[in-house]
Amino acid sequence: xxxxxxxxxxxxxxxxxxxxxxxxxxxxxxxxxxxxxxxxxxxxxxxxxxxxxxxxxxxxxxxxxxxxxxxxxxxxxxxxxxxxxxxxxxxxxxxxxxxxxxxxxxxxxxxxxxxxxxxxxxxxxxxxxxxxxxxxxxxxxxxxxxxxxxxxxxxxxxxxxxxxxxxxxxxxxxxxxxxxxxxxxxxxxxxxxxxxxxxxxxxxxxxxxxxxxxxxxxxxxxxxxxxxxxxxxxxxxxx
Length: 239
Hints:
Blueprint: E1 7-12, H1 22-28, E2 32-37, H2 46-50, E3 53-56, H3 71-84, E4 89-92, H4 94-102, E5 107-109, E6 115-120, E7 122-123, E8 142-147, E9 149-151, E10 158-162, E11 170-173, E12 177-180, H5 191-197, H6 199-204, H7 209-238
């Protein structure tokens, strides 16, 4: 039974990079979901400022590509206003990078090259991990990473996770903002669309699709369970 009638606005950069495992939890809570194709949107977007939850999904462009993709500037300004109002907002991959930029941090191509594949995500340091984030740090859990850029940790952010390749993989701001460089939302079946949509990138980087598919078969089922726990715990925490 739905327990609320709230609204979630989703900024989408690619149709196949969708809510994935987050959507069932939003539906269970009774959220009405509005998806915005930011490539054709006209900013400012009042719904994005006043909704209960604004979700920024991934995409193949960089934060610094606003000359080619002017909507990025609109997204960053929307994020600035939303963050200043302390309204709930998660960002995934490009969404995390846009959030970092909106908070004044530097976003740039990673010096150690792209991070594409399934890798363990590690605690950021000795500080205690929030209970709601703990499912994503479970022993032997691998998460999908698909990015070439990275970011500096914004001032005042709580550093949550790292990998062997890149130090800043997740951060939060109090109980309203969450940035995830990796993809906890993906599902094994949903990734089949990614392999097609990102075919040129995978070929250019000489990453075999069969390798990614085999990794997904191995790691995605455990991620699906961990992500379900994570989304529930985090939404309980912020709403």
